[in-house]
Amino acid sequence: MSKRVSLTLLTKPGCHLCDDARSVVDGVRSTTAERGIETSFEEIDILGDPRLARLHGEEIPVLMLNGRRHAIWRIDPVRLAAAVERAAKPRLFSR
Asked: How far from 20 is each of 4, 14, 63, CA to CA, in Å?
């Protein structure tokens, strides 16, 4: 049994790299869903959160995987798919 993987894309309006990132994430989610891996997806506009805007204003888009930064600016679909698959695997031992 695999666990659900959470993907969060931090964006802002008018960002063409955000459009590209959204497309990559959608494609990877489709591919991993075909392999039985569940993902959740949330997109957050950083301009609605002063803290996020301060932290990531020049690094948009940012993709978070299970709450940790996975990528900024450009998202490699092969790297993302591999990370989603790793994150979905149950761990026998926790550290």
From this structure: 24, 12, 12
Strand partners for 72? 62
Per CATH, the number for 5-88 is 3.40.30.10
Residue that is written with structure tokens 């489709």 in the block = 30
Q: Is the pTM of this model over 0.85?
A: yes
| pLDDT tens by residue, 3-54 | 899 999 999 999 999 999 999 999 999 999 999 999 999 999 999 999 999 9
DSSP class per residue in 4-63 = PEEEEEEE-TT-HHHHHHHHHHHHHHHHHHHTT--EEEEEEEGGG-HHHHHHHTTS-SEE
Cα angle 50, 87, 77 (rounded to 5 degrees) comes to 75
